[in-house]
Amino acid sequence: MKLRETYVCTACGARAPQWRGQCPACKEWNTLELTVAPREGKAGARPGASAAGPRGRAQSLKDVADHGAEPFGSGLDALDRVLGQGLVPGAAILVGGEPGIGKSTLLLQVAGAVAAAGRGVLYLSGEESLPQLKSRAARLDVLHDDLMAVATTRLDDVLPHLEGPTAPALLIVDSVQTVSSDRAEGLPGNVSQVRAVATEIVEACKRSGTTVLLVGHVTKDGALAGPRLLEHLVDTVISIEGDRRQMFRLLRVLKNRFGPNQELLVFRMAEQGMEVVEDPSTFFLGARDPALSGTALVMAVDGQRPLAVEVQALVTRSYLAIPRRTGLGFDVNRLHLLLAVLEKRLRLNFGQVDIYAKIGGGMKLQDPGMDLGLVAAVLSSFYDLPLPERAVFWGEVDLNGQVRPVAAHSIRRDQARRLGYTPLLHPADDAARGVPTVAALQDALFRRARRPAYANPAPPSASSPPSERSERSGQPGDSAPGNGDAEAGDRDV
Questions:
Q1: Alpha-carbon distance 141 to 164, whole Å?
Q2: pLDDT tens per residue, range 54-64
Q3: Average pLDDT of 66-86?
Q4: Cα-to-chain-centroid distance, residue 230
Q5: Is residue 368 exposed (0-12), middle (13-18) or buried (19+ Cβ within 10 Å)?
Q6: Percent of all residues in the chain with a pLDDT value above 70, rounded to a whole number
Q7: N- or C-end of the chain: fewer Cβ atoms within 10 A?
Protein backbone atom coordinates (compact mmCIF):
# COMPACT_ATOMS: atom_id res chain seq x y z
CA MET A 1 0.00 0.00 0.00
CA LYS A 2 1.42 3.38 -1.04
CA LEU A 3 1.46 6.13 1.55
CA ARG A 4 1.02 9.82 0.98
CA GLU A 5 2.32 12.60 3.20
CA THR A 6 0.01 15.57 3.56
CA TYR A 7 -0.25 18.50 5.93
CA VAL A 8 -3.57 19.01 7.69
CA CYS A 9 -4.65 22.25 9.39
CA THR A 10 -5.58 21.66 13.01
CA ALA A 11 -7.93 24.66 12.93
CA CYS A 12 -10.07 24.03 9.83
CA GLY A 13 -9.04 20.59 8.54
CA ALA A 14 -7.81 21.84 5.16
CA ARG A 15 -5.07 19.80 3.44
CA ALA A 16 -1.89 21.06 1.78
CA PRO A 17 0.72 19.06 -0.17
CA GLN A 18 3.59 20.83 1.59
CA TRP A 19 4.19 22.68 4.81
CA ARG A 20 3.39 26.37 4.98
CA GLY A 21 3.54 28.84 7.80
CA GLN A 22 -0.02 29.97 7.14
CA CYS A 23 -3.01 27.78 6.30
CA PRO A 24 -4.25 28.73 2.79
CA ALA A 25 -7.88 28.11 3.80
CA CYS A 26 -8.42 29.72 7.22
CA LYS A 27 -5.29 31.93 7.27
CA GLU A 28 -4.24 30.70 10.73
CA TRP A 29 -0.50 30.54 11.44
CA ASN A 30 1.54 27.43 12.37
CA THR A 31 -1.44 25.07 12.26
CA LEU A 32 -0.32 22.63 9.53
CA GLU A 33 0.74 19.22 10.87
CA LEU A 34 2.16 16.27 8.97
CA THR A 35 -0.10 13.24 8.50
CA VAL A 36 0.44 10.00 6.59
CA ALA A 37 -2.53 8.45 4.79
CA PRO A 38 -2.96 5.70 2.17
CA ARG A 39 -3.34 6.85 -1.41
CA GLU A 40 -6.12 4.41 -2.16
CA GLY A 41 -7.81 1.56 -0.43
CA LYS A 42 -10.34 0.91 2.28
CA ALA A 43 -8.52 2.61 5.12
CA GLY A 44 -10.70 5.71 4.92
CA ALA A 45 -13.96 3.92 4.19
CA ARG A 46 -16.72 4.19 6.70
CA PRO A 47 -18.83 1.25 7.74
CA GLY A 48 -22.11 1.24 5.89
CA ALA A 49 -20.95 3.92 3.44
CA SER A 50 -21.49 1.64 0.43
CA ALA A 51 -24.72 0.10 1.64
CA ALA A 52 -27.63 1.09 -0.55
CA GLY A 53 -30.78 0.67 1.51
CA PRO A 54 -33.59 3.20 1.87
CA ARG A 55 -31.20 6.03 2.72
CA GLY A 56 -29.68 5.90 -0.75
CA ARG A 57 -32.97 6.10 -2.68
CA ALA A 58 -34.79 9.31 -3.52
CA GLN A 59 -38.41 9.46 -2.47
CA SER A 60 -41.16 12.02 -2.11
CA LEU A 61 -41.17 13.97 1.12
CA LYS A 62 -44.94 13.41 1.35
CA ASP A 63 -44.31 9.66 1.61
CA VAL A 64 -41.66 9.90 4.35
CA ALA A 65 -42.85 8.35 7.61
CA ASP A 66 -42.54 10.74 10.51
CA HIS A 67 -43.49 8.36 13.32
CA GLY A 68 -40.92 7.98 16.05
CA ALA A 69 -39.51 11.49 15.48
CA GLU A 70 -41.38 13.18 18.29
CA PRO A 71 -39.05 15.12 20.60
CA PHE A 72 -38.71 14.04 24.21
CA GLY A 73 -37.80 16.03 27.28
CA SER A 74 -34.31 16.43 28.72
CA GLY A 75 -35.60 16.65 32.28
CA LEU A 76 -34.96 20.42 32.37
CA ASP A 77 -37.88 22.47 31.06
CA ALA A 78 -35.68 25.54 30.56
CA LEU A 79 -33.22 23.55 28.46
CA ASP A 80 -36.05 22.13 26.34
CA ARG A 81 -37.30 25.67 25.79
CA VAL A 82 -34.00 27.07 24.51
CA LEU A 83 -33.47 23.99 22.30
CA GLY A 84 -36.85 24.63 20.72
CA GLN A 85 -38.41 21.17 20.97
CA GLY A 86 -36.39 19.26 23.52
CA LEU A 87 -34.27 16.33 22.32
CA VAL A 88 -35.14 15.31 18.76
CA PRO A 89 -34.52 11.60 17.86
CA GLY A 90 -31.56 11.27 15.51
CA ALA A 91 -30.32 14.79 16.24
CA ALA A 92 -26.67 15.56 16.97
CA ILE A 93 -25.87 18.21 19.58
CA LEU A 94 -22.34 19.50 20.16
CA VAL A 95 -21.62 20.82 23.67
CA GLY A 96 -18.46 22.89 24.09
CA GLY A 97 -16.81 24.59 27.03
CA GLU A 98 -13.63 24.96 29.04
CA PRO A 99 -12.41 22.10 31.25
CA GLY A 100 -14.17 22.09 34.61
CA ILE A 101 -16.97 24.41 33.49
CA GLY A 102 -19.69 21.82 34.18
CA LYS A 103 -20.32 20.07 30.85
CA SER A 104 -20.11 16.53 32.23
CA THR A 105 -22.17 17.45 35.29
CA LEU A 106 -25.00 18.92 33.23
CA LEU A 107 -25.04 16.04 30.73
CA LEU A 108 -25.06 13.45 33.50
CA GLN A 109 -28.08 15.23 35.01
CA VAL A 110 -29.81 15.09 31.61
CA ALA A 111 -28.88 11.40 31.25
CA GLY A 112 -30.38 10.60 34.65
CA ALA A 113 -33.60 12.50 33.91
CA VAL A 114 -34.07 10.78 30.53
CA ALA A 115 -33.39 7.37 32.09
CA ALA A 116 -35.88 8.09 34.88
CA ALA A 117 -38.49 8.81 32.19
CA GLY A 118 -38.12 5.23 30.92
CA ARG A 119 -35.79 5.77 27.95
CA GLY A 120 -32.48 4.02 27.45
CA VAL A 121 -29.32 6.09 27.87
CA LEU A 122 -25.72 5.17 27.06
CA TYR A 123 -22.93 7.31 28.52
CA LEU A 124 -19.59 6.89 26.75
CA SER A 125 -16.77 8.12 29.00
CA GLY A 126 -13.35 8.45 27.43
CA GLU A 127 -11.90 10.49 30.29
CA GLU A 128 -13.25 8.86 33.46
CA SER A 129 -13.41 5.30 34.70
CA LEU A 130 -16.74 3.69 35.53
CA PRO A 131 -16.19 3.95 39.33
CA GLN A 132 -15.50 7.67 38.96
CA LEU A 133 -18.58 8.10 36.81
CA LYS A 134 -20.74 6.18 39.31
CA SER A 135 -19.45 8.30 42.19
CA ARG A 136 -20.45 11.51 40.41
CA ALA A 137 -23.83 10.04 39.42
CA ALA A 138 -24.48 9.06 43.04
CA ARG A 139 -23.62 12.58 44.21
CA LEU A 140 -26.09 13.98 41.69
CA ASP A 141 -28.66 11.30 42.64
CA VAL A 142 -29.20 10.17 39.02
CA LEU A 143 -28.41 6.45 39.26
CA HIS A 144 -30.98 4.39 37.35
CA ASP A 145 -31.28 0.95 35.78
CA ASP A 146 -31.72 2.45 32.29
CA LEU A 147 -28.59 4.59 32.61
CA MET A 148 -25.86 2.48 31.02
CA ALA A 149 -22.20 3.48 30.77
CA VAL A 150 -19.07 2.33 28.99
CA ALA A 151 -15.52 3.56 29.57
CA THR A 152 -13.52 3.20 26.38
CA THR A 153 -11.63 5.21 23.78
CA ARG A 154 -12.33 2.84 20.86
CA LEU A 155 -15.20 3.73 18.58
CA ASP A 156 -15.75 0.11 17.58
CA ASP A 157 -16.71 -0.68 21.19
CA VAL A 158 -19.65 1.70 20.95
CA LEU A 159 -21.07 1.25 17.44
CA PRO A 160 -22.62 -2.20 18.16
CA HIS A 161 -24.75 -0.62 20.92
CA LEU A 162 -26.34 1.67 18.33
CA GLU A 163 -27.73 -1.15 16.19
CA GLY A 164 -30.96 -3.09 16.48
CA PRO A 165 -34.03 -2.57 18.66
CA THR A 166 -31.94 -2.15 21.82
CA ALA A 167 -30.36 1.09 20.63
CA PRO A 168 -30.57 3.77 23.35
CA ALA A 169 -32.70 6.86 22.99
CA LEU A 170 -29.79 9.06 24.09
CA LEU A 171 -26.03 8.69 23.60
CA ILE A 172 -23.56 10.96 25.40
CA VAL A 173 -19.96 11.00 24.13
CA ASP A 174 -17.61 12.58 26.68
CA SER A 175 -15.58 13.62 24.83
CA VAL A 176 -15.24 13.29 21.06
CA GLN A 177 -11.52 14.20 21.23
CA THR A 178 -10.75 11.12 23.35
CA VAL A 179 -12.30 8.52 21.02
CA SER A 180 -10.37 7.00 18.12
CA SER A 181 -11.39 5.09 15.01
CA ASP A 182 -9.42 2.29 13.36
CA ARG A 183 -10.42 3.72 9.98
CA ALA A 184 -8.48 6.98 10.48
CA GLU A 185 -4.81 7.71 10.95
CA GLY A 186 -3.19 9.53 13.85
CA LEU A 187 -3.71 9.84 17.57
CA PRO A 188 -7.06 10.59 19.24
CA GLY A 189 -7.92 14.27 19.08
CA ASN A 190 -6.25 15.15 15.79
CA VAL A 191 -8.24 16.47 12.85
CA SER A 192 -8.56 13.15 11.01
CA GLN A 193 -9.67 11.25 14.10
CA VAL A 194 -12.20 13.86 15.24
CA ARG A 195 -13.69 14.02 11.74
CA ALA A 196 -13.94 10.24 11.40
CA VAL A 197 -15.32 9.62 14.90
CA ALA A 198 -17.95 12.36 14.70
CA THR A 199 -19.06 11.31 11.21
CA GLU A 200 -19.47 7.64 12.11
CA ILE A 201 -21.29 8.35 15.36
CA VAL A 202 -23.70 10.83 13.77
CA GLU A 203 -24.48 8.48 10.86
CA ALA A 204 -25.07 5.53 13.21
CA CYS A 205 -27.34 7.61 15.45
CA LYS A 206 -29.40 8.87 12.52
CA ARG A 207 -29.95 5.28 11.37
CA SER A 208 -31.07 4.15 14.82
CA GLY A 209 -32.93 7.33 15.81
CA THR A 210 -30.64 7.95 18.79
CA THR A 211 -30.07 11.49 19.98
CA VAL A 212 -26.35 12.09 20.49
CA LEU A 213 -24.70 14.70 22.69
CA LEU A 214 -21.05 15.22 21.73
CA VAL A 215 -18.78 16.94 24.24
CA GLY A 216 -16.09 19.01 22.53
CA HIS A 217 -13.02 20.74 23.91
CA VAL A 218 -12.30 24.41 23.27
CA THR A 219 -9.09 26.20 22.33
CA LYS A 220 -7.39 28.91 24.36
CA ASP A 221 -9.32 31.47 22.31
CA GLY A 222 -12.64 29.92 23.40
CA ALA A 223 -13.46 28.39 19.98
CA LEU A 224 -14.44 24.76 19.57
CA ALA A 225 -11.38 22.60 18.94
CA GLY A 226 -11.15 20.38 15.87
CA PRO A 227 -12.17 20.93 12.26
CA ARG A 228 -14.95 23.31 11.33
CA LEU A 229 -16.68 20.27 9.84
CA LEU A 230 -17.63 19.31 13.39
CA GLU A 231 -19.92 22.33 13.74
CA HIS A 232 -21.46 21.82 10.29
CA LEU A 233 -22.02 18.12 10.92
CA VAL A 234 -24.26 18.56 13.98
CA ASP A 235 -27.73 20.03 14.24
CA THR A 236 -27.19 22.13 17.36
CA VAL A 237 -24.14 23.78 18.90
CA ILE A 238 -24.21 24.66 22.59
CA SER A 239 -21.52 26.58 24.46
CA ILE A 240 -21.22 26.61 28.26
CA GLU A 241 -19.35 29.65 29.52
CA GLY A 242 -18.44 31.24 32.81
CA ASP A 243 -15.66 31.68 35.31
CA ARG A 244 -14.84 28.51 37.21
CA ARG A 245 -14.29 30.66 40.30
CA GLN A 246 -17.86 31.98 40.06
CA MET A 247 -21.02 30.03 40.84
CA PHE A 248 -22.95 30.84 37.66
CA ARG A 249 -22.72 29.32 34.17
CA LEU A 250 -24.10 30.61 30.87
CA LEU A 251 -25.46 28.18 28.29
CA ARG A 252 -25.63 29.69 24.81
CA VAL A 253 -27.28 28.10 21.78
CA LEU A 254 -25.05 29.14 18.87
CA LYS A 255 -26.69 27.03 16.17
CA ASN A 256 -30.02 25.25 16.14
CA ARG A 257 -31.85 23.57 13.28
CA PHE A 258 -34.90 22.83 15.41
CA GLY A 259 -35.48 26.19 17.08
CA PRO A 260 -34.16 29.70 17.62
CA ASN A 261 -30.45 30.29 18.03
CA GLN A 262 -28.61 32.82 20.19
CA GLU A 263 -30.69 31.74 23.18
CA LEU A 264 -29.29 32.06 26.69
CA LEU A 265 -29.79 30.01 29.83
CA VAL A 266 -28.28 30.81 33.22
CA PHE A 267 -27.29 28.05 35.64
CA ARG A 268 -26.10 28.17 39.22
CA MET A 269 -23.49 25.60 40.26
CA ALA A 270 -24.69 23.88 43.45
CA GLU A 271 -23.87 20.73 45.40
CA GLN A 272 -26.59 18.79 43.57
CA GLY A 273 -25.37 19.89 40.14
CA MET A 274 -26.46 22.68 37.83
CA GLU A 275 -29.60 24.56 38.87
CA VAL A 276 -31.50 26.77 36.43
CA VAL A 277 -31.87 30.45 37.36
CA GLU A 278 -35.44 31.06 36.27
CA ASP A 279 -35.29 34.89 36.40
CA PRO A 280 -31.69 36.06 35.84
CA SER A 281 -32.70 39.70 35.29
CA THR A 282 -30.91 40.92 38.42
CA PHE A 283 -28.89 37.80 39.21
CA PHE A 284 -25.57 39.40 38.28
CA LEU A 285 -25.95 42.48 40.45
CA GLY A 286 -25.16 40.73 43.71
CA ALA A 287 -24.76 42.98 46.76
CA ARG A 288 -24.46 46.18 44.75
CA ASP A 289 -23.97 49.45 46.65
CA PRO A 290 -25.29 52.32 44.47
CA ALA A 291 -23.86 54.92 46.89
CA LEU A 292 -20.34 54.28 45.57
CA SER A 293 -18.94 56.20 42.65
CA GLY A 294 -17.77 54.45 39.50
CA THR A 295 -20.68 52.00 39.19
CA ALA A 296 -23.45 52.13 36.60
CA LEU A 297 -26.41 49.86 35.98
CA VAL A 298 -26.72 48.68 32.36
CA MET A 299 -29.71 46.93 30.82
CA ALA A 300 -27.94 44.52 28.49
CA VAL A 301 -29.41 41.96 26.11
CA ASP A 302 -27.83 38.59 25.46
CA GLY A 303 -29.70 36.76 22.73
CA GLN A 304 -33.27 37.81 23.50
CA ARG A 305 -32.89 37.84 27.29
CA PRO A 306 -32.55 41.21 29.07
CA LEU A 307 -30.05 41.26 31.94
CA ALA A 308 -29.35 44.03 34.44
CA VAL A 309 -25.58 44.08 34.97
CA GLU A 310 -23.23 46.39 36.81
CA VAL A 311 -20.44 48.18 34.97
CA GLN A 312 -17.63 49.30 37.26
CA ALA A 313 -14.89 51.83 36.56
CA LEU A 314 -11.96 53.15 38.58
CA VAL A 315 -10.15 56.35 37.60
CA THR A 316 -7.14 57.05 39.79
CA ARG A 317 -3.93 59.06 39.64
CA SER A 318 -1.18 57.35 37.66
CA TYR A 319 2.48 57.30 38.62
CA LEU A 320 3.56 55.65 35.37
CA ALA A 321 4.92 57.28 32.24
CA ILE A 322 2.21 55.50 30.23
CA PRO A 323 -1.09 55.25 32.19
CA ARG A 324 -2.79 51.87 32.36
CA ARG A 325 -6.03 50.96 30.62
CA THR A 326 -7.56 47.63 31.67
CA GLY A 327 -10.93 46.09 30.84
CA LEU A 328 -12.42 42.80 32.07
CA GLY A 329 -15.55 41.18 30.69
CA PHE A 330 -15.56 43.11 27.40
CA ASP A 331 -13.23 44.09 24.57
CA VAL A 332 -10.64 46.50 25.99
CA ASN A 333 -10.48 48.24 22.60
CA ARG A 334 -13.99 49.50 23.31
CA LEU A 335 -12.67 51.21 26.45
CA HIS A 336 -9.85 52.87 24.49
CA LEU A 337 -12.32 54.12 21.89
CA LEU A 338 -14.72 55.59 24.46
CA LEU A 339 -11.92 57.31 26.38
CA ALA A 340 -10.75 58.95 23.16
CA VAL A 341 -14.30 60.16 22.51
CA LEU A 342 -14.55 61.65 26.02
CA GLU A 343 -11.21 63.43 25.71
CA LYS A 344 -12.18 64.89 22.33
CA ARG A 345 -15.83 65.77 22.90
CA LEU A 346 -15.79 66.69 26.63
CA ARG A 347 -12.28 68.19 26.77
CA LEU A 348 -11.27 65.85 29.57
CA ASN A 349 -7.65 64.97 30.29
CA PHE A 350 -7.00 61.29 31.04
CA GLY A 351 -3.25 61.56 30.44
CA GLN A 352 -2.40 61.41 34.16
CA VAL A 353 -4.82 58.73 35.34
CA ASP A 354 -5.05 54.94 35.28
CA ILE A 355 -8.46 53.64 34.21
CA TYR A 356 -9.77 50.19 35.05
CA ALA A 357 -13.20 48.89 34.02
CA LYS A 358 -15.01 45.58 34.37
CA ILE A 359 -18.39 43.89 34.25
CA GLY A 360 -19.54 42.93 37.74
CA GLY A 361 -20.07 39.29 38.68
CA GLY A 362 -17.62 37.89 36.14
CA MET A 363 -20.06 38.46 33.27
CA LYS A 364 -18.76 38.75 29.70
CA LEU A 365 -20.60 40.96 27.23
CA GLN A 366 -20.26 41.91 23.58
CA ASP A 367 -23.35 44.11 23.62
CA PRO A 368 -22.70 47.58 22.08
CA GLY A 369 -25.52 48.87 24.28
CA MET A 370 -23.17 48.91 27.27
CA ASP A 371 -21.28 51.94 25.86
CA LEU A 372 -23.43 54.54 27.58
CA GLY A 373 -23.19 52.78 30.94
CA LEU A 374 -19.43 52.46 30.63
CA VAL A 375 -19.15 56.19 29.89
CA ALA A 376 -21.33 57.00 32.90
CA ALA A 377 -19.23 54.77 35.18
CA VAL A 378 -15.97 56.37 34.00
CA LEU A 379 -17.34 59.90 34.51
CA SER A 380 -18.72 58.93 37.93
CA SER A 381 -15.30 57.71 39.08
CA PHE A 382 -13.52 60.64 37.42
CA TYR A 383 -15.61 63.17 39.38
CA ASP A 384 -15.93 60.81 42.39
CA LEU A 385 -19.71 61.27 42.46
CA PRO A 386 -22.23 58.40 42.55
CA LEU A 387 -24.89 58.06 39.90
CA PRO A 388 -28.61 58.22 40.76
CA GLU A 389 -29.46 55.09 42.75
CA ARG A 390 -32.03 53.59 40.34
CA ALA A 391 -30.66 54.97 37.07
CA VAL A 392 -30.18 52.50 34.22
CA PHE A 393 -28.27 53.03 30.95
CA TRP A 394 -28.06 51.58 27.47
CA GLY A 395 -26.97 52.93 24.09
CA GLU A 396 -24.08 52.84 21.65
CA VAL A 397 -21.64 55.76 21.56
CA ASP A 398 -20.13 56.55 18.17
CA LEU A 399 -16.90 58.44 17.41
CA ASN A 400 -18.75 61.76 17.23
CA GLY A 401 -19.99 61.41 20.78
CA GLN A 402 -23.55 60.74 19.69
CA VAL A 403 -25.66 58.07 21.40
CA ARG A 404 -27.15 55.73 18.82
CA PRO A 405 -30.02 53.22 19.14
CA VAL A 406 -29.23 49.54 19.76
CA ALA A 407 -31.05 46.32 19.09
CA ALA A 408 -33.88 45.15 21.37
CA HIS A 409 -34.55 48.69 22.61
CA SER A 410 -38.16 47.95 23.54
CA ILE A 411 -37.14 44.76 25.39
CA ARG A 412 -34.63 46.73 27.47
CA ARG A 413 -37.11 49.52 28.19
CA ASP A 414 -39.94 47.20 29.21
CA GLN A 415 -37.67 45.14 31.46
CA ALA A 416 -36.22 48.27 33.12
CA ARG A 417 -39.70 49.59 33.84
CA ARG A 418 -40.82 46.20 35.15
CA LEU A 419 -37.92 46.22 37.60
CA GLY A 420 -38.77 49.77 38.71
CA TYR A 421 -35.63 51.55 37.48
CA THR A 422 -35.69 55.30 36.97
CA PRO A 423 -34.49 57.43 35.29
CA LEU A 424 -33.93 55.53 32.05
CA LEU A 425 -31.02 57.03 30.12
CA HIS A 426 -31.03 55.71 26.57
CA PRO A 427 -31.12 56.87 22.92
CA ALA A 428 -34.14 58.80 21.76
CA ASP A 429 -37.24 56.86 20.72
CA ASP A 430 -40.89 57.60 19.92
CA ALA A 431 -41.80 57.83 23.62
CA ALA A 432 -38.87 59.87 25.00
CA ARG A 433 -36.27 62.33 23.73
CA GLY A 434 -33.46 60.31 25.30
CA VAL A 435 -29.80 61.25 25.63
CA PRO A 436 -28.49 62.57 22.29
CA THR A 437 -24.75 62.93 23.09
CA VAL A 438 -22.19 62.18 25.78
CA ALA A 439 -22.05 65.94 26.44
CA ALA A 440 -25.77 65.86 27.28
CA LEU A 441 -25.16 62.87 29.56
CA GLN A 442 -22.44 64.74 31.44
CA ASP A 443 -24.58 67.85 31.65
CA ALA A 444 -27.49 65.87 33.12
CA LEU A 445 -25.47 63.96 35.71
CA PHE A 446 -22.44 66.08 36.62
CA ARG A 447 -23.36 69.68 35.84
CA ARG A 448 -21.86 71.08 39.05
CA ALA A 449 -19.07 68.56 39.44
CA ARG A 450 -15.50 69.80 39.85
CA ARG A 451 -12.68 68.30 37.83
CA PRO A 452 -9.86 66.66 39.79
CA ALA A 453 -6.89 68.99 40.10
CA TYR A 454 -4.49 66.50 38.51
CA ALA A 455 -6.72 66.18 35.41
CA ASN A 456 -7.70 69.82 34.85
CA PRO A 457 -7.24 70.77 31.18
CA ALA A 458 -6.13 74.17 29.93
CA PRO A 459 -8.90 76.81 29.82
CA PRO A 460 -10.40 77.49 26.39
CA SER A 461 -8.79 80.34 24.48
CA ALA A 462 -10.48 83.07 22.53
CA SER A 463 -8.88 81.77 19.34
CA SER A 464 -10.54 78.38 19.67
CA PRO A 465 -12.93 77.44 16.87
CA PRO A 466 -16.59 78.26 17.63
CA SER A 467 -17.48 74.56 17.56
CA GLU A 468 -14.95 73.84 20.32
CA ARG A 469 -16.11 76.77 22.45
CA SER A 470 -19.69 75.58 22.12
CA GLU A 471 -18.63 72.08 23.15
CA ARG A 472 -17.00 73.54 26.25
CA SER A 473 -20.08 75.48 27.23
CA GLY A 474 -22.31 73.81 29.76
CA GLN A 475 -19.48 71.65 31.08
CA PRO A 476 -18.86 70.87 34.75
CA GLY A 477 -18.11 74.00 36.73
CA ASP A 478 -20.68 76.21 34.97
CA SER A 479 -23.33 77.86 37.09
CA ALA A 480 -26.33 75.79 36.13
CA PRO A 481 -28.90 73.81 38.10
CA GLY A 482 -27.60 70.42 39.18
CA ASN A 483 -28.57 66.95 38.11
CA GLY A 484 -31.10 68.17 35.52
CA ASP A 485 -33.13 65.26 34.15
CA ALA A 486 -31.27 62.77 36.35
CA GLU A 487 -33.64 63.79 39.14
CA ALA A 488 -36.66 63.83 36.92
CA GLY A 489 -38.70 61.23 38.77
CA ASP A 490 -40.28 58.18 37.08
CA ARG A 491 -39.79 58.99 33.42
CA ASP A 492 -37.35 58.37 30.62
CA VAL A 493 -34.54 60.80 29.86
A1: 30
A2: 556 788 888 87
A3: 85
A4: 18
A5: middle
A6: 83
A7: N
Cα–Cα nearest to 80, from 238, 215, 231: 238
Check if the beta carbon of residue 379 is closer than 8 Å to that of residue 387. no
Report yes or no: 47 and 203 within 8 Å, Cβ to Cβ.
no
Beta strands 3-9 and 32-38 are: antiparallel
Instruction: Quote the distance between the C-alpha of residue 314 and its chain's center.
Output: 26
Give the helix ranges, DSSP H, for 243-321: none
List pLDDT tens digits, range 349-407: 999 999 999 998 778 888 999 999 999 999 999 999 999 989 999 999 999 999 999 99
> Which residues are within 8 A (CB) of 99 and not within 5 positions of it... i.e. 6 or more apart?
217
Question: How many C-alpha atoms does 3 have within 13 Å on its Cβ side?
Answer: 6
Q: Are 205 and 212 in contact (CB under 8 A)?
A: yes
Dist CA 471 CA 370 (whole Å): 24
The crossing angle, in degrees rounded to 10, of helices 332-346 and 438-445 is: 80
CB atoms within 10 A of CB 153: 15
**pTM above threshold 0.70:** yes
Which stretches of 51-96 are DSSP H helices? 77-83
pLDDT at 200 over 50: yes
Q: What percent of the residues of the chain are helix, what percent strand, and what percent coil, each to the nearest 5?
A: 30, 25, 45
